Structures are given as C-alpha cells and as structure tokens.
Amino acid sequence: MAGRTRRGGIALLVVVIVLGALAFGARTLWRAAQSVVKPDGCDVGSYFLELEQAQVASAIVGVVLKRELPKRAAVLTIGGALQESKLRNIPAGQGDRDSVGILQQRPSQGWGTAEQIADVRYATGKFLDALVRVPGWQDGSLATVVQTVQISADGSAYARHEDQAQAITDALVGDTPAGVSCRFDKPDRSAKPAAVAAALTRDLPVSAPTVAGKTVTVTDAGWATVAWFVCNADRLGVESVRHEGKRWSYSEGWKDDAAASGSAVVATLAH
What is the distance between the alpha carbons of residues 31 and 111, in angstroms, rounded to a whole number? Predict the structure, then answer.
C-alpha cells in the first residue's frame, strides 16, 4: 500500500513538472512570436508610430525648438498633422484638391509652392508663422486654435488627437526621458558620421557634434537630442544611443548602462 502511494506521489510530481515545463515553453514561444510579429516602428508611451511618422514628428519638434517657441506649439502642430495626414508627408496629387504635405496645405491658398510644402520643415514653419498670430494660442484648446489656422471642413476633429500629440511632444522635447523607442532590422548601410552631425545641427539647436570613427558625440545635450537620434535611426543607420545611464539600440530597445554619461549624447552608427 505504501509503495502504491509513493508511486502515485511520484507520478503526480512528474505530471506537475511536465505541465510546468509545457506552460513555461508556451510562454517562451508566445513571447518569441510577439517579438517576431511586432512591426517595425516606434513606441511613444502607449502610442505606436510608423518609422516615417516618427521622423516627421521629430522634424516638427526640431523646428519648434530652433524657434525657441513654447512646447505647446509642437503639441498643436503635431495634433494638426495627425488629423490632416496621420503624420505622413503626402505628395502632390494624393491629397484633397491641391493639398500637399503633413498639414495638407494648399498652394492655391498661399501656403507656398507644392515643392516647398513637401518639405516638412518648411510646412511646419509656415504653420507656426500663422499659429503665433492667433490670439491666446498658448492657452486655447487644440481644436479651436488649429482650426483657426487650418480652416478645415470639420475643426472639431482635431480634438481627438490632443493626448497623442502631447505624449509625442513630451517624449521628443525630452520631458519624458527615454520616451521613444524604435525597432527595425539591422541597417545594411549608415550615413557618413559627418552627414549625421550635419543633419542633427540642421534640425536641433545643439553645439557642434564631435565625430570619431562610427560615433557622433554631442556635449551639453539632453533627451531631445537622444529622441532625435532614435526617431531617425533607421534612415541614418544608427545602431545605438547612450545618455544618462541608459542605452538604446534598434535590437533591444532601452537598457540600463552605468557607463552612459549625463553630460553628452553618444550615437554609434551600425556601419
């Protein structure tokens, strides 16, 4: 009797172990499947952006920072672009009537030529020129202020993008440290380090970067610079970015890195 009881206990233990192993294996497989099917793109809080959308948002924020405008200007511009184009640079002939670009501005209404409006930075600048002339633009609701600039058929639609525009702006101006993380396959090429440094200084108000080998180092820079590198990493071939105890890479996202300095941002190119 004791032998049967012991054998029964052993059999039960084996069943428990096997079931536990199966459950562990199922979890592992599920996580692996999630990593495989998760699309290329960028996570900003609970929001997902395609790589192109992140690059557009980065360009918008850069124009606002270079003009030294309040952060609210970026929220309003991004909110408008989310409604007008879903943060995509729509070419001439593919928008409504003669509308072009991220804000669907129309040459026939004096926004500029189609070629000019197709430049994200130009389009953002023209929007901001009109925005700052709106009385009370810093305190008004997103829908009311953006509609005053855009004169859309349904101005109330802009309101739905307030929270997402705020989250994107917080991450890209650096108010949310390590607030954006992009993933994509390993780049098969990288821009030249000098070209990366030139693109950065064109977009952001930073001191001249130092280039050495595959690294671009920006002293006295912060999380806005980090966010710019991450958002543009795919098109530039950036492998990793380090700052203030954190390291981002296209393959692993954000990880702790005790060696990452808080006094500089260091981007390393893949090639």
Answer: 48
With a cut of 50, say whether residue 25 has pLDDT above it.
yes
By C-alpha distance, which of 234, 194, 235 is closest to 214?
A: 194
The reply to whether 129 and 194 lie within a common domain is no
Question: 172, 200, 223 — which closes off a domain?
Answer: 172
196, 265: one domain: yes
8 Å CB contact between 230 and 245: no
User: pTM of the entire structure?
Assistant: 0.86
In whole angstroms, what is the distance from residue 9 CA to residue 5 CA?
6
Q: What band does 153 get if pLDDT is binned at 50, 70 and 90?
A: confident
- Which one-letter amino acid corresponds to residue 188? D
- Range 154-182 burial, b when 16+ CB lie within 10 A, else e: ebeebbebbebbbbbbbbbbbebebbbbb
Helix axes 223-231, 51-66, angle to 10 degrees: 140
Average pLDDT over residues 221-234: 98
* Nearest partner of 81 among 182, 173, 161, 180, judged by Cα: 161
Question: pLDDT tens digit string along 106-123?
Answer: 999 999 999 999 999 999
- pLDDT number for residue 95: 67
Same domain (yes/no): 198, 136: no
- Indicate if the alpha-carbon torsion angle 134, 139, 141, 143 is positive or negative: positive
Residue 225 identity = T
- pLDDT over 80 (residue 157): yes
Query: Above 90 in pLDDT, residue 80?
Result: yes
Closest CA to 89 of 131, 122, 48: 122
pLDDT at residue number 105: 96
Contact 226, 248 (CB under 8 A): yes
